[in-house]
Amino acid sequence: MLLLLCLLAGCRGDIPFLHSEEEQLQPVQHRHIRGFFLLNEGNMGSNKASLDFFDVGSGKYQRNIYPTRNPGIVKELGDVGNDIAIYGSKLYAVINCSHYVEVMDVHTGRHVGSIDVLNCRYIVFHDGKAYISSYAGPVQIDPNARPGKVVEVDTTSLKITREVVVGYQPEEMVITGGKLYVANSGGYRYPNYDTTVSVVDLRTFAVDHTIDVAINLHRMALDRYGRIYISSRGDYYDVKADVYVVDTKTDRVTRRLDIPASEMCLVGDSLYMTAVEWSYVTQSNTVSYTLYDVGRQEVVTRNFITDGTDRQIKIPYGVAVDPETCDVYVCDAKDYVTPGTLYCFSPAGKLRWKVTTGDIPAHFAFTTVPLEDVGN
Amino acid sequence: MCRQTTMKRAAGRLCVFLVTGTWLLPSARAQSRLDSLQRLDEVVIEAQTPVKEVIPAQRLAGDGLQRLGAHSVADAIRYFSGVQIKDYGGVGGLKTVNIRSMGTNHVGVFYDGIELGNAQNGVVDLGRFSLDNMEAVTLYNGQKSAIFQPAKDFSSAGSIYLQTRTPFFRDDERQHLKATLKGGSFGTVNPALVWDHKLSDRLSTSLSGEYLYTTGRYRFTYRVADSYDTTAVRRNGDVQAVRLEGGLFGSLPRGYWRTKAYFYRSERGYPGAVVKNKFSHEDRQWDMNAFAQGTYKQDFARYSLLLNAKYAYDYLHYLADPNRDAALMYINNHYHQRELYLSAAQRYALTDRWDVSLSADYQMNALNADLVDFVYPRRHTGLVAAATSLRVGRVDLQASVLGTFVTERVKSGSASAEDRHEWTPTAVLAWRLTDEWTARAFYKRIFRMPTLNDLYYTFIGNVSLNPEFTSQYNVGATYARTFSGRWLRRVEAQADAYYNEVEDKIVAMPTSNFFRWTMVNLGKVEIRGIDVAAQADWLLPGGVSLTSRLNYTFQRAQDFTDPDDSYYGGQIPYIPRNSGSATLQANWRRWEANYSFIYTGERYSSRANIPANYVLPWYTSDFSVARNIPLHRGTLKCTLEVNNLFNQQYEVVMSYPMPGTNVKAIVQYAF
Predict the structure, then answer these.
(1) What pLDDT does residue A5 have?
(2) Cα gap A131→A120, rounded to integer Å
(3) pLDDT tens readout for residues A61-116
(4) Nearest Cβ partner of B509 from A18, A146, A335?
(5) Does A15 touch chain B if contact means CB atoms closer than 8 Å?
(6) Helix, strand or coil for residue B98?
């Protein structure tokens, strides 16, 4: 009777708290690197962006560390984690569909502040300032021609200091020689994609000029020779995905690599690129894992996974390379609605281990400080 | 809310049968002689031999339907076994139905005997269909257990028939009027009017109109154990809708004809997902749905003919305007759909126990939209069904085969899907073991075509898609008994166990990046389930009559797409293993009371059945009380409803919070 009354009265309990989970993996000794944060995007509308941490020294992998370390934060990390980076003692997570950047203490993973930026995408840093790209520039008379912007944030006060209007749907950025290079995609404007890189003078915070590259630009990587590798997503029909090289001495396109790249990671002279391309002929995705040497300017291998593990990976998503050991990390996002898998490969491309992540594992930030243990 | 008055006058026996919300329909033999558009006088005859359906069916009708405290058809369907409703919350939120976990696209929804189409995305929003002029809502697994029906009626894995009221007049009556005003929580105002008029002995009309306004605002709370507790107000769930409907009903010697015109227009907000830092949305939608349809049925000596025709136009305008919400990217799309449907069904009685039927349908669907690179698809569908029913001793047998022929055209220069020809069978068997017990079984194989969005939507569409097939195997039993004892008057019960397979399931698959998905035939789902429904009618001392209903569903619906997947065999999203409902309806003199309870067990929002995807069970209690007051020539009825009595905070779909306690007051005058 009591049970029935309880049932009718709806005393069902609260939504269960999601504790972090732990797994033991193979430790690898490092000199400076202590581990990395992995941001899982989570599918749109699911509010399932989550943060994992791998301690390289102990081999301890912790899944979903944010709620445990921030139990009072409403609706956890948010909807669609799009970028993560460390600057100074702070960890920044760009949460695209929650329209904000979460700022945490890099030692503890605890919330220290947040920056509201509508439709924010990526973050880079320079000289005490953070630069965040955003799709949501000023609304024009023609609402279909709404440019994006980059906001400048003071990393001490976490206040927005300046804004600059750039191209359509800006994505990744790099900074060199006092200039901010922004890859504009125009991804919402099919078939009129943007084709430009906006070059912003950081002193005046105005667009100095634009470089015409290719349609639907996305990733950017800057090598030590002053060249920027920029991925073009193509139009998914006739125009193939490719990578273009811009020389920042002349701000001109100097090369086209003829390599598709959905993801890019540059360490030293090694540029790791993965790509997924859908074929209507075979009704399946074709996946490629290219390693390109930016010094010698040639392809090293078309498949940097050498032990056949690539056949297990459905959708390679995030790619990262350990700057010390040159171990290669590849994320498998699978079908986007179930937890992904993180694969760790030796520099020779042999599988070391794999581990289950959150949904859509994607973005990495290596840290040189240990993450305080708070239990689960 | 109530529409008991004319019904009660119709016939005492009928009232017991229909008004209490009986879901078991007449015998197979008799059923095969009738079509879905049963006229009241025919139903009266049926009510004298209340036996069982040969195929699992559930029905809510008349007063029993009206007293559930339901806003819409979708709310009523929650009381059926083996059904999941996806409800995005509030009066205006999308509500779709999934029968036995085979997917929303496998459900055929029929309005007065003709299917409501949506070739664009294959989904009918049942939240938009009011119960105000609804006579009955019937759900069939497989297909309606009649062989004399349009070919279209054989073409879904599960079907829901919405039957609006048919005018009924006693000898001295010339018109009926029913005026209703509902109002309550969420700033809801909902006036409605139905006017039935008898023009002659053979001709009558029914006109009805309804207006609905709601702000769609309600408080919701997220409370996480040992963590946060936050309350906010649901916004942008406002709806403004108008429905106008007119019918012309003619009776003929041994036949009838009827026509109907339907018009619906609405403006609504998209309440959207509640995610961190984004609790409200500003995108909006405008709809217009209009159709005209007609039916003609004629019985000759051993031959019967049924003709149906329909023309429908649907308009949808979606607007996401950054001027209203700076977070939005601009989207402003208009969709226009047209549908033409023609059907001829005929039946011939070879002997008293053996019928054969043949029906042929043609349907044309056209979709226009102002999307970039849109291909303007046109789909022509031909359907041919041959069926037979046979009665041997205490055994009823039915068999049918459906041929489907689909051809598509798109604007020149683009690729269209290849022509399709498919033949799919159904077999039904029922065995009357005793006067009380009947055993039954059916097998059905059917498919759904890829929707026009699946095939042609810019970027996402894939013209190489195959149809998505389902196979159903069902065994069950029914029991019905009338008692002459003191309290318990009648018991009816049915239980079915089933195994379903969905093959070549059409799912969205990610390709080169987050922005780019495509549709592929990838999924395989196996569903094992049990549906139980029971009803008892009571007559208690002091003149209290009671009707009690219980429904229970167990389902194991597992994804068996990829054996290498870590979550192979996981329960598919949003399907609870256990769910059920209970209702108790009491009448005493001029008072009526209703209590309904709905339970949906724990579920997962993904086939990865892990804590991160766990969705709490939910259960709500709704209560209503009403009093009938004779006034002038008719009856004034006042009703007060309290829904979600214990203010449970719950979600049916992740990130779409549902309303807590809400109230409704209804005043209705009918004569």
Answers:
(1) 57
(2) 11
(3) 999 999 999 999 999 999 999 999 999 999 999 999 999 999 999 999 999 999 99
(4) A335
(5) yes
(6) strand
The closest alpha carbon to A269, from A230, A227, A219, belongs to A227
Q: Of A98, A143, A146, which is closest to B275 when you measure between CB atoms?
A: A98
DSSP annotation of B152 reads G
Helix H, strand E, coil C: the string for B450-465 is CCHHHHHCCCCCCCCC
**Which residues from A are below 8 Å from B606, CB to CB?**
337-338, 359
What is the strand order of the sheet A160-165 is part of?
A120-126, A129-134, A149-154, A160-165
Q: How many Å separate Cα B183 from the centre of its chain?
A: 24
Residue of A nearest to B653 (CA): A46
Q: Is B591 left (phi over 0), alpha (psi -120 to 50) or beta?
A: beta
* B171 band by pLDDT with thresholds 50, 70 and 90: confident
Cα separation, A182 vs A205, whole angstroms: 13
Cα(B16)–Cα(B539) distance, rounded to whole angstroms?
A: 12
Compute the nearest-CA separation of A64 from chain B (Å): 10
Q: What is the four-CA torsion angle of A56, A62, A66, A67, rounded to 10 degrees?
A: -160
Burial class from Cβ neighbours inside 10 Å (0-12, 13-18, 19+) for residue B600 reads buried
The one-letter amino acid code at A325 reads T
Q: Considering CB atoms only, which of A74, A262, A359 is closest to B276?
A: A74
Residue B24 buriedness (CB in 10 A; 0-12 / 13-18 / 19+): buried
**B12 and A CB contact within 8 Å:** no
CB count within 10 Å of CB A281 equals 6
Say what the ipTM of the complex is.
Answer: 0.93
The token duo for B388 is 């037979």
The token duo for B99 is: 């029968």
Residue type, B302: R
Q: How far apart are the first and last CA of chain B?
A: 14
Q: Do the beta carbons of residue A209 and residue A199 sit within 8 Å?
A: yes
Contacts of B564 in chain A (CB under 8 A): 312
Are B205 and B194 spatial neighbours (Cβ–Cβ below 8 Å)? no
**Cβ within 8 Å of residue A11, ≥6 positions away:** none
Q: Which residues of A174-195 are buried (b: 16+ CB within 10 A; e: fewer)?
A: bbeeebbbbbbbbbbbbeebbb
Residue with tokens 């007119």: B246
Please answer yes or no on whether B322 and A356 come within 8 Å at the CB atom. Answer: no
Q: Min CA distance, A261 vs chain B (Å)?
A: 9
Classify strands B95-99 and B229-234 as parallel, antiparallel or unpaired: unpaired
What's the pTM value of the predicted model, to 2 decimals? 0.91
| Residue pointed to by tokens 């389930």 | B529
pLDDT digits (tens, 9 = 90+) for A214-260: 999 999 999 999 999 999 999 877 889 999 999 999 999 999 999 99
Which token pair is B372?
């970039």
Q: Which residues contact A180 (CB under 8 A, 6 or more apart)?
A: A124, A126, A131, A150, A173, A174, A199, A200, A202
Q: Residues of B numbered 611-650 whose beta carbons fall under 8 angstroms of chain A's beta carbons: which are they?
A: 611-612, 614, 616-621, 646-648
The residue type of B450 is: P
- Chain A neighbours among B 426-465 (CB < 8 Å)? 458-459, 462, 464
Distance CA B75, CA B87 (A): 9
- What is the number of residues in chain A? 376
DSSP A259-316: ---SEEEEETTEEEEEEEEEETTTTEEEEEEEEEETTTTEEEESB---SSGGGG-SSE
Fill in the DSSP letter of residue B156.
-
**Which chain B residues are Cβ-neighbours of A50 within 8 angstroms?**
612
Q: Which amino acid is at B177?
A: L
Q: Cα torsion at A346, A348, A354, A358 (round to 10°)?
A: 80
